[in-house]
């Protein structure tokens, strides 16, 4: 059994002026051979995009990409014809498949957009690109782990073409949540904000827990905690 904590300050960091980004795994100019991904989870970038700035049109291929907005709004436009605004609470999934072009922008003149960009390795390649976006309220996530992405779209989650499930939760005070784990798989807990106890280990904002060989996940003693939990192929 193993639970390894990766502290927030251990992540890679890039400041481009218009974009400030923390990298949980090797990405762009940040390279750490000890942190190339975890299972089939390849990227978690915590991005802050300045007002009136954004990512110009660029391409992706054979990757499942999830955007999870924390504050502000993210404007999305892609070569499939989707033009969407992603507010906090929405989960956006884009399957890049055999190739897609898109841009992401913060059109607000006076507000930073703060979001998580998540990449998961697909279990099928060369498929037609596709897009999906769903909203999950605070009540959906309060005091529990709400499934927000899965291979089969269970419980109204967005569907990813990957052997992975993603849960989101809000925990404070006496609220607790548990999740049965397959010891043969890997899990990753990313604490978006606040404080939280994960299987008896304390995490703070930006910290993560890399887990394998465990059969149970227990989350407790949260202080305004927002958490993402990944169930991943080993």
UniProtKB/TrEMBL annotation:
Which residues does the UniProt record annotate as the domain Quercetin 2,3-dioxygenase C-terminal cupin? 147-232
Q: Which SUPFAM superfamilies match?
A: RmlC-like cupins (SSF51182)
Organism of origin = Variovorax defluvii
What name does this protein carry? Pirin family protein
What family does this belong to? Answer: Belongs to the pirin family.
What are the residue boundaries of the Pirin N-terminal domain, all occurrences included?
7-120
Gene3D superfamilies assigned? Jelly Rolls (2.60.120.10)
